What we know:
Residues 251-271 are annotated as: Disordered. This is Oxidoreductase. It comes from Streptomyces poonensis. Pfam families: NAD_binding_10, NmrA. With 288 residues, this protein is of the alpha/beta class. It folds into two domains: 6-131, NAD(P)-binding Rossmann-like Domain (Rossmann fold, 3-Layer(aba) Sandwich); 133-166 and 192-256 and 268-281, UDP-galactose 4-epimerase, domain 1, CATH 3.90.25. 39% of the residues lie in helices and 16% in strands. It contains eleven helices and eleven strands. The protein has helices spanning 15-26, 57-61, 79-91, 113-122, 143-151, 168-180, 199-210, 221-230, 236-250, 260-265, 272-278; strands at 6-10, 30-35, 45-48, 66-69, 96-100, 125-131, 153-156, 162-163, 188-191, 197-198, 215-218. A seven-stranded parallel sheet has the order 3-2-1-4-5-6-9, with helices on both faces. It has a two-stranded parallel ribbon with strand order 7-11. A two-stranded antiparallel ribbon has the order 8-10. α3 links the parallel β4 (66-69) and β5 (96-100). α3 (79-91) packs parallel to α4, α7 packs across α11 (272-278) and α8 (221-230) runs antiparallel to α9 (236-250). The longest helix has 15 residues, at 236-250. It starts with 5 loop residues before the first strand and ends in a 10-residue tail after the last helix.
Amino acid sequence: MTATGTTLVIGATGTTGSRTAAQLLAAGHRVKAASRRATPVPGAEAVRFDWYAPATFDDALAEADRVYLVPPVGDPDPATVMLPFLKQARAGGVRRAVLLSSSAVPAGGPAVGAVHQVLPGLFEEWAVLRPSWFMQNFTGDHAHATTLRENGTVLTATGDGRVGFVDADDIAAVAVHALTDATAPGTDLVLTGPEALSYDDVAAVYADVTGRPVAHQRLTYEGMRDHLTRAAGIPAEFAAMLAAMDQAIAEGSEDRTTDTVERLTGRPPHDLRTVLLREGVGREQPTG
C-alpha cells in the first residue's frame, strides 16, 4: 500500500469507524468517511453510503484502494448485501479490505462469518478483526450503559462467564495498522483487553468509578432474548443470536486474552477503569 492511497471507512460515524477514521487522519492518510447521511467528518471526504442502496456504492468506492468494512447492524445475513459490494470494490481497484467481525464468530460461522470466509478469495490483501465485547457497551447509548445509568443494573445471561472486554480505541488502532502497514495481516485477529472480567467484575468497577451501587442481574437465555426484543427493540432473530452468545459466555467461550493489540500497536491495551474514566462515566448523572 502507498501513503497516497485513500481509505473508505464504512460506518464512519459509528463506534469503531469514527475512531478508525480519526486515527487514519491523524496519521496523515486520506479518508472517505461513509455514512447513511454523509455526515461531515473534519479532514475527510464525507460520502453517502447505505448497504441496502447499491446506487450509493459507486461514489463511495471512487478512488478508494482500501476499505474498512463495518457490517450492517442487526442483519442476521449480512453477506446478502455485502458480497455484491465487495465484488464491485475489487473490480473497481480496492486491493485491501479489513473486516470488522467478532471474537464469537469464526470464518464460516453465522452472520458476518460468511463474509469472513470469502474475503481472502476476493482481495489480494486482507484482515478480519475479531474483537471481544466492547468496553463502550458500558458508556454512551448502548443498552447496558442505559440500564447502568438509569437503574444501576447490567442485565445478562452470562452467569459467572468472563469476557476479555476491549476498548474501541484499541480496535481502531489495530484497524489502522491492518489498513496501512506495508504488509497486510492476511489473517483474522482476535482482540481483547488486558484481562477477562465477569459482569459481576464489571459492575464492581463501574460502582467504584461512579460511587453508586451497581448490580449484575442474571437472566436466563429466554429472559435475555425477550428483554432484548421488548426493551431494546431488537428484531427477534437477532435477539436470539445475542442471547445465545451470552449463553456461550456462561460456558466459557470468551474467557481469554490475547497479545494482539500490544503486538501490533506497540502498547498494551487499555483496561476498563481507564476507559470508563476517559469517557466520562462517573461525571454522568443517573436519569432514573
